[in-house]
Design goal:
Blueprint: E1 6-12, E2 19-32, E3 37-44, E4 56-61, H1 64-80, E5 88-92, H2 97-101, H3 110-116, H4 122-140, E6 143-152, H5 154-165, E7 172-176, H6 191-194, E8 202-209, H7 217-234, E9 239-246, H8 256-267, H9 279-284, H10 288-306, H11 313-324, H12 330-343, H13 348-360, H14 364-378, H15 386-402
Parallel strand pairs: 4-5, 4-6, 6-7, 7-8, 8-9
Antiparallel strand pairs: 1-2, 2-3, 3-5
InterPro entries: AB_hydrolase_fold, Esterase-like, Siderophore_Hydrolase_D, TPR-like_helical_dom_sf, TPR_rpt
Keywords: Hydrolase, TPR repeat
Family: Belongs to the esterase D family.
């Protein structure tokens, strides 16, 4: 049986005292034949999801009951600030956390085994993800085959075990204070003995650690960090990116949110394209037209690598503004903004930038046409800054009235 209901916050309207839900996602239930139980999922879709034909990377969130709300807020904040792309979030509610997130461990002491109840079900949970959940998500939603998994504590242990067991299942591993005190034969082995074909490794692995000092957890985390770095340094053909970030100011409970905030930008660091900004940098790329082509080609290649469309709009917009700041390249700003419009023909921001470029070079009628398109598009949205687009058009009309024939 499948059901959905809104998860939301409440906004109080002081004018009418009415309550308006602000949804951040929905839940649904799927049945797992592998786990022999129903599992509740918490789903967050990007704001652009309903109006777009593109696919989105997916963040699979372990321990969703604790992590869903702050993960949604962090993802939206990072996307708004152009540090990561839009993404779908699939939170997985626990039923038996200790069972699902821990691998089999004959080395586990009797006391630890009694404390954990029924540990050792990680292989089954991996099978559930690989054979049931991921196919379901990629069939049901506009999900790209680019997958990130977030795991904290035992979830971090599960991340490490999954990477050792089946590194290609996820494209990126966001691993937070992993419980590496837990003994397991596989993850205690040296990297070189597990990953004998480095050319097959294609993943980004981010790992953080809070203020944990008890037992051997910190030592094993540092050992794993060294294993990653040594392997990367000695196997240049491995497509592996790694970052270890200690967070001693955080506790085991608080480290999750800042780790998502820091880890996701690391995973998507390649989308932060550095455009040429000076005349010398532009000439080094072969001139302004070549710089535009190079930008487009970079993001086309990135889209192929990530397996979803990585937007080039920010880079093209920045490039257009860079041209505008250089008197000899002003006219080429129009070309950059035109390509931007072609890549996102429904974007009011793209038309506004193109209109501004035309205005800067004195082609006022073309500027007016694009400002009008921008205003028409923005008025169909809830963007509270629509007045700026209207002001641009009104100011241009005044300028044209003062200069007939322009």
């Amino acid at each position: 049986m499948k059901f959905k209901f809104l998860i939301g916050l409440i906004l109080f309207s002081y004018s009418s005292y009415s309550q308006i839900p602000i949804p951040i996602g929905e839940t649904e239930t799927i049945h797992s034949e592998i786990l022999k139980e129903d599992r509740i999922l918490e789903i967050h879709l990007p704001e652009s999801y309903g109006e777009s034909d593109k696919t989105y990377p997916v963040l699979y969130l372990l321990d969703s009951f604790y992590n869903f709300s702050h993960a949604v807020g962090t993802v939206e904040y990072l996307q708004l600030n152009r540090l990561i792309p839009d993404m779908i979030i699939v939170g997985i509610r626990n039923t038996n956390r200790n069972r699902d997130l821990s691998p089999n461990s004959p080395e586990l002491s009797k006391e630890e085994r009694e404390r954990m109840g029924r540990p050792g079900g990680a292989d089954n949970f991996i099978a559930f993800l690989e054979e049931e959940l991921i196919p379901y998500v990629e069939k049901t939603y506009k999900a790209a085959p680019y997958r990130i998994i977030f795991g904290h504590s035992l979830g971090g242990l599960f991340n490490v075990y999954t990477f050792y067991k089946n590194p290609e299942l996820f494209d990126a591993y966001l691993t937070v204070s992993p419980s590496l005190w837990y003994p397991n034969e596989l993850i205690s082995r040296d990297f070189k003995d597990v990953f004998k074909n480095p050319s097959k490794l294609r993943a980004a692995f981010y790992m953080s650690l809070a203020d944990e000092n008890k037992g051997n957890m910190r030592g094993n985390v540092l050992k794993l960090s060294g294993e990653f770095n040594n392997y990367i340094n000695t196997h240049k053909d491995a497509g592996l990116r790694f970052k270890y970030e200690p967070m001693p100011e955080e506790s085991h409970g608080t480290v999750g949110l800042p780790s998502i905030f820091s880890g996701l930008p690391f995973i998507f660091e390649p989308i932060q394209y550095e455009i040429p900004r000076t005349k010398e940098e532009i000439l080094a790329q072969g001139g302004p037209e070549a710089a535009i082509k190079n930008t487009v080609a970079y993001f086309d290649e990135l889209s192929e690598k990530y397996k979803f469309e990585v937007s080039k709009k920010n880079a093209l917009t920045d490039l257009g503004y860079a041209f505008l700041r250089l008197e000899e390249y002003k006219e080429f700003s129009v070309n950059a903004f035109k390509v931007n419009v072609e890549t996102q023909p429904d974007s009011y921001e793209a038309y506004s930038s193109l209109g501004m470029a035309y205005e800067e070079i004195g082609e006022l009628q073309k500027a007016k046409n694009n400002y009008e398109k921008a205003l028409n598009l923005v008025m169909k949205t809830d963007d509270p800054e629509w007045e700026f687009y209207k002001a641009d058009l009104d100011n241009l009309k005044s300028k044209m009235e003062a200069k007939p024939g322009k």
